[in-house]
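Open question from group meeting: does this chain pack into something compact, or does most of it stay loose? Before anyone orders reagents, we agreed to write out a predicted structure and look at it together. Recording both the input and the output here so the notebook holds the full record.
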Amino acid sequence: MYQLLQNVRNGRLELADIPLPQVGGNRLLVRTEASLISAGTERMVAQLARKGLLGKARARPDLVKKVLTKLQRDGLWATLRSVQQQLDRWMPLGYSCAGEIVAAGPAVRHFRVGQRVACAGAGIANHAEYNAVPELLAAPIPDGVACEDAAYATLGAIALQGIRNADVQVGEYVVVIGLGLLGQLAVQILKAAGCQVAGLDPVPARRELALTGGASLALPPDSASISAVRTWTHGLGADAIIITAATSSNAPVELAAELARDRARVIMVGVTGMNIPRKPYYEKELTFIVSRSYGPGRYDPDYEEHGHDYPPGYIRWTEQRNLQAFLELVAAGSVRPSILTTHRFPIDRAIEAFELMLHGREPYLGIVLTYPSRETASARRIELLAPARPIDKATLGVSFIGAGNFAQAVLLPILKKLPQVRFRGIVTASGMTAQTVGKKYGFQWCATDVDEILNDSDTDVVFIVTRHSQHAPLVCRALEAGKAVFCEKPLAITPDQLEAVQATLQKTGGHLMVGFNRRFAPLAQELKQFTKGRGPLSVTYRVNAGPIPRDHWLADPAEGGRIIGEACHFFDFFAFLTDSEPLELQRLSPQGVSPRDDGQFLVRYKDGSICHLIYSTNGSPGFSKERIEVHAGGCSAVLEDFKTLILDDGIRRHKKNLWTADKGHSRAIAAFLASLADSRPLIAPETFIHVTLLTLCAAGVVERLPATG
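Structure tokens returned:
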């Protein structure tokens, strides 16, 4: 299928051939009939991508701050690699479309195949022939509403949410500043709601269009408009002002205060300067609200991804219900999106449509992409390279399931340098990442169906780099298919998953490696050699993990939490240092913090060692991330961020520094691939089982460790 993508580094647009996306759970597979290019948001995103590094830095100072923090903690080379990896990404474009449901996941409750829907969401309602859309980000299209009009639903919901925040009443006087797409839709919705509407915009054609859409007054946003609005409102001033402009200027915010009556509402829907002048806002006691997207549910993974709707008795207007309300206004003829459409392009001319918007060679407003049916649009596998024949049997066919940040930043660059590796297939849920990453690293083909890899006779090794909840089921399937498996940590997030993996290993005798790389780090090897044979160890491992965004997928309870997802690394390091089994674990968590995300853990091992893990998410981002102290037999050692090692035997102190941190990723992968030659596991599977059980116990998923012999 065709999908429009943009390169983050240089802004280049590409109409790519992408595998059909997966559909499962609460997702709908929608064949797109029309999508709308947002002249405000998408133009801003596209223009940012076309800026150089300095321009991007000026536009996004928040990201510059993150880079500086990473530079301070991780060093120059690690920071450069991270920045390069982010710049080398491709991103989907589009967030408002309409089409027909052709398939639905088993958890879908309120839609059926063949139904027409409007869809919303960046990265979801893409400019693509097919989209996989969560149920609550779709709304049914009423009979008689064309898909081209329904494709405006996302922008209509944004305008509608701004109007709801303005809390307007029938007969009130409302001024809309900025008559682009959002402003025009706001004018029509306000008119349908029984309000008197005035529109302000510097472009005469847009003012004329607002009058056609129901505005009583349309003026340029200058000082003369203040007296005109005062006269129009019979000397009162506007009851509400809705700002839908897109400008870096502070003028709309300042003008809104002049237009407003005493105690009016000012609602920011667009993107402008927000240096609010205190004097007029104070003297009139104005209310200023920044409206958030298309309504309650936005940026809440529980709502958007997992389909947990809000009860209408408590939250009447959610994202989905705003979409539906807008479509019903269109069906009634109260809102007419069609009068806003100035251009139509078929999807195969999508780049031409964006160039028109970016360069402004002619006036435009609503640009709609249309999607004629194609018989070849439904492929779930795309060949990226011509088949290589004959295949070199001295090499290993490597395929990837998942291709997120870690795979792109760490695993794939390492494997690309190894002569014994031959990339076969790459599978991701959306297909876009599989195609763009697959092309970059030279994979033979990309797909969205895991079975393509499991049934591929030329795939010898499968790397599983998906979200954590999928690891164990995929490990079992890959082992049963006779593949060697490298699974990123964690191996499992529940006891049932771990039992399934253990049973599959016993049944198949398959070759499994879990990505516990720290034990392969060069300084870790020196540390172990130094402490070996000195008796029971006293180990303290402090991890300054830092917070993650609330909407990060790792914060989703369905993915197990951070202790399961990350602390397993450190429990494996204890197993590596002690060469012993855990007997007992004690855990403490700070008050007010989930025990699955933060805590301190004291582990007693069979050889008498005591290991203390401090996993903290509330430390300073400028402080070192990992510090390991080991004391045994009158000797001490400190390993800091896998970059600095201090060894003290009570007589002499030795310090070793690396230019950059080395956590052992390259050595772990090389050792794993080498171990395939003699079919002997690099690390005993029992170690993975013990470490995972200990991790589940630390997270409170397992009550206590099982007794050992």
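Observations to bring back to the group:
The first helix runs from residue 41 to 49.
The chain has 23 helices and 31 strands.
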